[in-house]
Write a structure and sequence with these properties.
heterodimer; A: alpha/beta; 5-stranded parallel sheet; about 25% helix; about 10% strand; elongated; B: 3-stranded antiparallel sheet; 3-stranded antiparallel sheet
Chain lengths: ~350, ~600
């Protein structure tokens, strides 16, 4: 067995520069540590065949902690990226991008300091500096992809997603569009799998990552919540929960699953456990560009659900009655299973 | 006697240093210091946060039932604490008491959050400050001693020497580091069983939960919990060995990150047999919590009364980028019991952002300065990262007694039952001599065992409900036109309060106060420094490196002991304006790939 080498050994590692200082909660960073398919330690150690060597600069768990300009400075990697000293690198952005132009001075969010002025370097300035030099730019979480919670109506910061900031048709110097992995937070394996795909693509062993028109990986975000929800059977039978602790379909209590692109009920949250409507939590559409405003108040029935649940209520009652008849039949064993002297299975014994 | 802060003097011989962003914490926090290398101590420290999002601004006018979904997004490692706290505040405002099973399920979810979060932070974030690689690069002499020092509890945890423990904590390569990552995963599975998903729950609602209370739910949780109980029987002695060694190896290390004992704890994990979520009875049901609320000043328990705690909260400005709201409309003049409420109380706060340049002599952070007014002083309470304050308040109050956990008045006893390969085990957390970095870290490990023990109790109670057929987990409610609510809980990192005002059926005012604003707060209107500032200012330097190779590990240990929840930055110029530019070869996650 000869293993195919992804690239000559003297190739530089692919650096991953991770900026968590958008308007974020770090929930996507934390969520990634839960991934098991693959796990962060498997990605970092190249435990999957054909993965290129990587060097991760990730605030959440980075070893480096030295002072600015001194020994082991974390932020120095970002300056190196800007100076073109590390190539290739993938830029990961976490958190919404605020609009820094709407105020006379100061900053909504910063990441590291400008050595000239001593003032924080804004996150959007980092994006301006690094995005043109990156092999690929990845937006992690609904904030970075579309603006998310922090871009809610009435927000003071003018927050937006990375495609809003850079342009929806922006492509990297390698011709890769912005890769958006939405979720609040991201489903752990959804992100680790996307990152792995990009590394395989960088190593030359995978074609261009397939993305939809909202820049989401198609194999993860091609179906709706409802299409993968195990409570859809109740919907079909017109059985809707009236209280949140019911095992039935939650669509009349605020679940937006039928129109939301997300794989959580199908995939589970982690290790196949947990989720949203499949375990009693209404879908609040946290993976969608319209989140949160188009889905609030969350605990009210979605307007579209009123009509379709009426329809399903009507034919669902018929379906349910027919099923209960059949159900009663298939709950009985065939009559040839019994004790006694006589065989009644239809077999003719030769003795 | 509290250590005194020294002024920086005329600045001669002091070195300015900045860490920005500080890694291995959550969020955005900055620390700006002046270090006196001659005296080997930190002379001055400023804590600064560089991210503003504006929850209190954009929540106004929204449906109150959205509050827990929205506020969960405040934090990506303890968002469920916010969702829980918000649900508590909503329960009060709507006048709804969830069915007991609903409360037991929330307690089990929140216990799992403590078990997960403290574990990942202790072993994968803060643990790296004590790993072999870090100690080799900062105190080679200490590592040499660790190689020669047998671990007293080797029989319990399996590591022969202290250096073996340190090696096991090396990032990715360390065996225990990798095991802890796995533990952080199955504890999150436990969490997801109860609250749907991590870190922003899907099954939490005002009035209870959407989780289906079944035998299977409890089986799945219990089997994982018992694995964790067995794990903790190794981890408590492991960390005792490691932290005790630092006192021995570096005499005087108790001063690192030390500050006056000023601890706040708002209580956690309600007992549904007593808690009705009314403000009127809050003092009583607060004392029935499985973590007792309390304020500890200089070793004395000042109060365990949540009503008194509530009325004492003040939000001061001084060094933060906000305009004051003095003279603006007061939403709540009196609490539901008729007590006057201060204009600087969160119920009456207005958040008016005023972005501006950072100036360490004036305004330098997006964090405000929460203080607790004891009738005389505005105390800059800290949480010590959460566990030390929780254990301290609970120990002194002596109210918790559930068999698995007993508060004695001077300690907390944790009784863990037999597990697959280990016998019954008893741990006792005794009130330490100091509120410092090492004791904050030690308390974190003990609190992991505490959480597991309380979870055993809650699981038994919850399963008893299921077996009795009382499987309802959610109760109907109506949103009133006018109401106030407050939620108190302990987030992982400490005190958490949510104050909500409802008018015309909508949110008129909503102010969450997580632990980090208390810990990372800035100098207030009275000039009192915040806890990080205060604790770092008292920190001596034990690192063996010269200023050129200086990492500031002692400062990092002081800051990380509080388990910060925002990015941290501090500036570095060598005295005389010369900037140090020495760079080290990268380690950690770099260059480990095949």
């Amino acid at each position: 067995m000869v293993q195919e080498t992804p690239a000559p050994a003297e190739d530089p590692p692919i650096h991953i520069l991770w900026i968590n200082a958008g308007l974020s909660c770090d929930g996507d960073s934390v969520s990634l540590t839960a991934a098991m398919q693959p796990s962060i330690e498997e990605i970092v150690t190249g435990a999957l065949p054909g993965l290129p060597k990587i060097a991760v600069h990730w605030p959440l768990i980075d070893f480096e902690c030295g002072p600015v300009g001194g020994a082991d400075t974390f932020i120095e990697w970002f300056f190196k990226g800007e100076r073109g000293e590390i190539d290739p690198f993938v830029l990961v952005v976490e958190g919404s991008i605020p609009n820094e132009k709407i105020k006379p001075e100061g900053y909504w969010c910063g990441f590291g300091d400008n050595p000239e002025t001593g003032q924080p370097i804004t996150t959007s300035e980092w994006i301006d500096r690094l995005a043109p030099k990156a092999l690929a730019v990845v937006a992690i979480g609904t904030c970075a992809t579309y603006g998310g919670i922090h871009a809610m109506e009435g927000n003071p910061t003018g927050a937006m997603g990375l495609p809003d900031y850079l342009g929806w048709d922006w492509t990297s110097k390698a011709g890769i569009p912005i890769v958006c992995v939405p979720g609040c937070p991201i489903q752990p394996d959804n992100f680790s799998e996307t990152l792995t795909y990009l590394l395989y693509q960088a190593a030359g062993s995978a074609p261009m990552i397939p993305l939809d028109d909202k820049l989401r990986p198609t194999w993860l975000f091609g179906q709706t919540v409802h299409e993968g929800c195990d409570r859809a059977g109740y919907y079909e039978q017109g059985q809707f929960a009236k209280t949140y602790d019911s095992p039935k379909c939650l669509v009349k209590l605020g679940c937006w699953g039928p129109v939301v692109k997300c794989n959580v009920p199908k995939r589970g949250w982690m290790a196949g456990i947990g989720g949203c409507p499949n375990v009693g939590g209404i879908c609040i559409a946290c993976t969608m560009p319209g989140f949160p405003d188009k889905f609030m108040p969350f605990m009210d029935e979605p307007p579209g659900a009123k009509l379709s649940s009426k329809a399903s209520g009507a034919y669902g009652a018929v379906v349910r009655r027919l099923r209960s008849v059949t159900g009663h039949t298939v709950d009985q064993e065939p009559k040839w299973r019994h004790t006694g002297e006589k065989l009644t299975t239809g077999y003719r014994p030769p003795w | 006697m509290a250590p005194k802060t020294q002024p920086a003097g005329d600045g001669s011989g002091l070195v300015e240093m900045a860490w920005d962003p500080i890694t291995r914490i959550v969020g955005s926090l900055g620390i700006h210091t002046k270090i006196d290398f001659k005296q080997k101590r930190v002379a001055e420290c400023y804590s600064t946060s560089s991210v503003f999002r504006g929850y209190s601004v954009f929540m106004r006018g929204k449906d109150p039932r959205d509050a827990h979904f929205i506020t969960s997004r405040i934090c990506g490692i303890c968002g469920d604490n916010h969702a829980t706290c918000s649900v508590y505040a909503q329960n009060m405002a709507y006048g709804v008491k969830p069915p007991p099973l609903g409360d037991w399920i929330i307690n089990l979810g929140e216990s799992a959050e403590y078990m997960f979060d403290h574990n990942i932070f202790q072993e994968n974030l803060v643990g790296v400050d004590y790993c072999e690689k870090m100690v080799r690069e900062t105190n080679p002499g200490v590592l040499e001693l660790a190689e020669r020092t047998p671990a007293p509890h080797a029989g319990e945890h399996g590591y022969k020497t202290i250096a073996d423990i340190m090696r096991s904590l090396n990032p990715i390569e360390g065996e225990f580091y990798r095991e802890a990552l796995q533990v952080s995963r199955y504890t999150r599975e436990m969490f997801c069983l109860m609250e749907g998903r991590h870190v922003h729950p899907s099954t939490l609602y005002p009035g209870g939960v959407g989780t289906i209370g079944s035998v299977q739910l409890f089986t799945d949780y219990m089997t994982r919990l018992m694995r964790y109980v067995e794990f903790m029987k190794r981890v408590v002695p492991l960390h005792d060995d490691l932290f005790d060694f630092f006192y021995e190896a570096l005499p005087g290390y108790e001063e690192v990150g030390r500050r006056r004992v000023l601890l706040g704890c708002w209580g956690a994990l309600n007992d549904p047999e007593h808690c009705d979520y009314t403000y009127a009875n809050m003092t009583d049901w607060g004392r029935k919590m499985f973590v007792t609320p309390g304020v500890v000043v200089d070793g004395k328990l000042v109060t365990t009364d949540l009503t008194e705690i509530n009325l004492g909260i003040r939000i001061l400005l001084g060094s933060s980028y906000y305009d004051d709201w003095q003279g603006q409309e007061q939403f709540v003049t009196h609490d539901p019991l008729g007590n006057p409420v201060d204009p600087r109380h969160p119920w009456n706060q207005h958040t008016i952002p005023a972005p501006q340049k950072r100036n360490f002599d004036d305004k330098y952070s997006w964090v405000m300065s929460p203080r607790w007014f004891d009738g005389k002083d505005h105390l800059a309470l800290d949480t010590g990262g959460g566990p030390i304050a929780r254990l301290w308040a609970t120990a002194l109050a002596g109210l918790v007694d559930v068999g698995y956990v007993q508060a004695t008045g001077h300690s907390v006893v944790i009784n863990l039952p037999r597990t697959m390969t280990k016998p019954e085990t008893r741990f006792e957390w005794k009130i330490p001599k100091w509120s410092n970095a090492l004791e904050r870290n030690r308390a974190r490990t003990y609190f992991q065992a505490y959480s597991a023990a309380i979870a055993l109790h809650c699981a038994e109670k919850g399963l008893a409900e299921v077996r009795a057929g009382r499987t309802q987990t959610w109760e109907k409610f109506e949103v009133p036109d006018e109401a106030v609510g407050v939620g108190f809980t302990e987030a992982v990192r400490g005190v958490l309060s949510h104050h909500m005002v409802i008018r015309d059926g909508k949110i008129a005012n909503y102010h969450p106060y997580p632990p980090t604003p208390w810990n990372a707060s800035t100098r207030d209107t009275y000039g009192t420094p915040g806890p990080y500032e205060d604790a770092v200012q008292n920190t001596p330097i034990f690192e063996e490196n010269t200023p050129e190779n200086f990492k500031g590990i002692d400062i990092m240990r002081a800051v990380r002991s509080f388990d910060p929840c925002l990015p941290c930055g501090v500036h570095m110029y060598v005295g005389g304006g010369k900037t140090v530019k020495t760079m080290h070869v990268p380690t950690g996650l770099s260059g480990l790939g095949g």
